[in-house]
Structure prediction request, 319 residues.
Amino acid sequence: MSNAMRTPAGAINVERYQGAVAEGRFRRLWNANAPGYLFLLPWLIGFFGLTLGPALISLYLSFTDFDMLQSPRWVGMANYVRIATADPKFSAAMHVTLTYVVFSVPFKLTFALLVAMALNRGLRGLSIYRAIFYLPSLLGGSVAIAVLWRQLFASDGLVNAALSHFGIEGPSWISHPNYSIYTLVALSVWQFGSPMIIFLAGLRQIPQDMYEAASLDGASKFRQFYKITLPLLTPVIFFNAVVQTIEAFKAFTPAFIISGGTGGPINSTLFYTLYLYQEAFGNFRMGYASALAWILVVIIAIFTAFSFLTSRYWVHYDD
Prediction:
């Protein structure tokens, strides 16, 4: 047998045998995994064609001067240098966006947690209340709700009409630079349904015997909340905080509708995403807008990384 393998014919037979073995192994693997890959095919097409592909193209465009009418012209880091040194609207948009994030996320999570704790007390018709409170999260991002919100906070809107019954003359909330951003914060807080559902699920996982033992020891309701509810709920709080902050950074529709796409008055509602939209589709500076988009990606990534690094000091898991 060894002599035959040393001959050319024997070597060819060994190569054919090894090839047949490899082909058979590949066929078995394919037969075992082909259904899974076929089910994944729509997602893979969407991921590479609609997510990863456009993201890589936008990264390339961020280093170019591209107006969507002519071919992109390579400019290197010029777009990023301009953003850092010669674009006052960039700093204005960042200030507005950070103000929105700092105010909307804590108020939204606090309100969602309070409602979840109220629903966790065993109300009748819990599923109905849960659906009603979740409804704003489904509708809040729509154009219709943004238009309605603009009407509510107009100078002759329902809010000022209610204040007039108490002898208070309210301003035109959406037209005043000191108040307009807070109308958008109020709209964000109104969309508390999604974190509320998650908080409610987290509250249901806390053992009731811990509260019973604390009550027997004389702990007040506030102390039970501070010593039992909050520590055991920190993983859910962490998840909601990260998700809601990312969503706040990406907010666009309310500011666009309420300000008419201008970010006014005096750039008081110029969200970062709205400024990005203006540069891309208003001024046709697609390369510059792509650079703005990637800066937003970096900002969100830094926040997320910071959140995970600091979570070890305040997020308590089962271990």
Q: What stands out?
A: The first helix runs from residue 2 to 6. The chain has one domain: 86-310.
